[in-house]
Write a structure and sequence with these properties.
By secondary structure, the chain is α+β, with helices and mostly antiparallel strands. It has a domain of 118 residues: NADH Oxidase. Strands 1, 2, 3, 4 and 5 form a 5-stranded antiparallel β-sheet that branches.
């Protein structure tokens, strides 16, 4: 199998089973994902594992950030419980005169994309989730982010329900998307 095959087969899995990779299973995948293009080799990213109660604390932070009351926010509170493992993707902006913050965000995004591909190839269901509450103060506090950090979203990871239920992929018109000067 080629990298091209793996990329073409990748799908988002909105629903997953409670199974999840262990930390020991994650470490080599994170090590490989961390080799993405990174101008200046700043490694301007980190990942946070959310399992068990930390997912419930995230749900509470989402409700607080939304301004909803406990009853109205129950659906929002349950969202982080959709997978047994959430991996928060954090851009860590490093001081640099030559590497702008947007480039550092791109490196962190690259880590997330490569990690999702590696997890998929390892047999896990993965979906990158974000939303309008991702960068709110209650969510920042819950993740204990420093002033130079920005949350880019979460990889929801679990066992695959079935390939048939994976998100559909719309073909890309590559000729239209690749232009020349």
């Amino acid at each position: 199998m080629t990298v091209l095959d793996a990329v073409v087969r990748r799908r988002s899995h909105a629903k997953v089973t409670p199974a999840a990779p262990t930390r020991e299973q994650l470490l080599p995948l994170v090590g490989a994902a961390g080799l993405v293009a990174d101008h200046g080799s700043l490694r301007p990213w980190r990942l946070i594992e959310l399992r068990g109660d930390s997912r419930e604390r995230l749900g509470d932070a989402l409700v607080l950030a939304s301004g909803l009351d406990d009853e109205s926010g129950s659906n929002l509170r349950a969202k982080p419980l959709r997978a047994s493992l959430l991996i928060a993707v954090v851009a860590v902006h490093q001081p640099s005169f030559k590497v702008a913050d947007w480039e550092q965000d791109a490196a962190a995004s690259g880590v997330a994309h490569i990690l999702s591909l590696l997890l998929t190839e390892a047999g896990w269901g993965v979906m990158w989730r974000t939303g309008h509450l991702t960068r709110t103060e209650p969510v920042r506090r819950m993740h204990r982010l420093a002033d130079n950090e920005e949350l880019l979203g979460w990889l929801y990871v679990g066992g695959r329900v079935s390939e048939a239920k994976a998100g559909a992929r719309v073909p890309i018109d590559a000729d239209r998307m690749l232009t020349a000067l």
